[in-house]
Automatic annotation (TrEMBL):
Gene3D superfamilies: Nucleoside phosphorylase domain (3.40.50.1580). This is Purine phosphorylase. Signal peptide: none annotated. It comes from Micromonospora rubida. Residues 6-241 form the Nucleoside phosphorylase domain. The lineage of its organism: Bacteria, Bacillati, Actinomycetota, Actinomycetes, Micromonosporales.
């Protein structure tokens, strides 16, 4: 799991744009099946976000949520957008966080009528606690349009396969009869909730801005630009929530109070060296075998290592950890090193090692790449 990354999915382009406007350093990342994500940061130094567009409906939202989870292994998944309000107390522009999600189209048809077969998912307790904290503090409203002061509601959201725009239709009566506690209605939440449930209860939070009242007035409220306004409010709350969720996830990983991780070892090591000696490794208690650098028994395949490094370099650029200019320079050094391998001059050191050293300087800020380069350089020195 990547504790520093949250996936945010939307159904509509205007919802996507509302979230995208809050991200910086965006880089495209394409799934092998063609799904396009953009990876960036919240603000200049916030957590990373993988943003995706799924389209309308629970079925595509389920499939693409599953795809995003497997691609990024995020700390949490948020679904952000607009919805219709079902309660007079929920005003246009207000934000609803789903405490429960209903898939309301399940049922069985019998002689005496249609009977509901409810299926529901509740928000995970820890995510619910964090969301309430974000709502209480209220900092998420700071950069909304002047005069905007939306409230946050926690309640059930009904998710189906049709747009509800009537207060008296058969569907509206069905919702009131069988899902009476629902405060909003939309079309994607059940899909993402199911995807989260099937992935070891990954925290899934649905955040909706209320853009209409699901009562026949949708054309009017859309004409009053409530959709983009409600989307911006939902995006503001969701990005604030994403920041808090990554902090909370990091605490659990590090074993801080309330977490499931191992507590840090209460141990201090101090190695002293004098003269020309240097401390090579400083470690705590070690169990099992330890190998440092290249193994003499298992020579490193330089060609395979360079190919693997090239793949990781590309991924670092797509993830936004490496800017395009640095990536291009790093690729040039890799090409030079690959040329040395191809013509057999790598065994003589020289140009091959110099290319690797220049490359190490370019990617020094990406610890994973720097560590792999150090191993390749050590192996190259062994054959030079």
């Amino acid at each position: 799991m990547d504790d520093s990354l949250v996936v945010i999915l939307t159904a509509l382009n205007l919802e996507y744009e509302a979230v995208r406007d809050r991200l910086t350093g965006l880089a495209v990342r394409r799934h092998t099946a063609g799904t396009r994500f953009e990876v960036g940061r919240i603000g200049q130094s916030g957590p990373r976000v993988a943003l995706g567009l799924v389209g309308k409906g629970n079925h595509p939202s389920a499939v693409l949520a599953e795809r995003a989870i497997n691609e990024f292994r995020p700390a949490a998944l948020l679904f952000v957008g607009v919805a219709g309000g079902l309660r007079p107390s929920v005003a246009l522009g207000d934000v609803v966080v789903a405490s429960k999600i209903y898939a309301y189209h399940g049922g069985t048809s019998e002689d005496d009528g249609l009977k509901a077969r409810p299926k529901a998912w509740e928000i995970p307790h820890e995510a619910d606690q964090v969301a309430h904290h974000v709502a209480r503090v209220g900092e998420w409203r700071r950069d909304l349009a002047a005069g905007a002061n939306p409230r946050v509601h926690f309640g059930a959201i009904a998710a189906g396969e049709v747009v509800q725009d009537s207060a008296i239709s058969a569907q509206a009566r069905w919702i009131r009869q069988h899902y009476n506690d629902a405060v909003a209605i939309e079309m994607e939440a059940a899909g993402v909730a199911q995807a989260g449930h099937l992935n070891r209860a990954l925290p899934v939070v649905v955040v909706r801005g209320i853009s209409d009242r699901a009562d026949g007035s949708k054309a009017v409220t859309d004409g009053q630009t409530w959709q983009p306004r409600a989307a911006r409010h939902a995006a503001a709350f969701a990005t604030a929530l994403a920041q808090e969720l990554t902090i909370d996830s990091g605490r659990r990983r590090d074993g801080m109070p309330g977490g499931q991780g191992s507590a840090p070892m209460p141990m201090k090591n101090e190695n002293l060296a004098s003269g020309n000696a240097r401390v090579g490794v400083q470690a705590g208690q070690i169990h099992g075998n330890v190998t440092i650098g290249a193994s003499l028994e298992e020579p490193v395949d330089l060609a395979a290592s360079i190919a693997d490094l090239r793949t990781r370099l590309k991924q670092a650029c797509l993830d936004g950890r490496l800017d395009e200019e640095t990536y291009a320079a790093a690729e040039a050094e890799l090409d030079a090193a690959t040329g040395c391998l191809r013509d057999g001059s790598a065994a003589n050191g020289g140009g091959f090692l110099m290319s690797l050293k220049r490359l190490r300087g370019l990617v020094a800020d990406v610890s994973e790449l720097a560590a792999r380069l150090a191993m390749i350089i050590a192996a190259a020195r062994g054959i030079a």
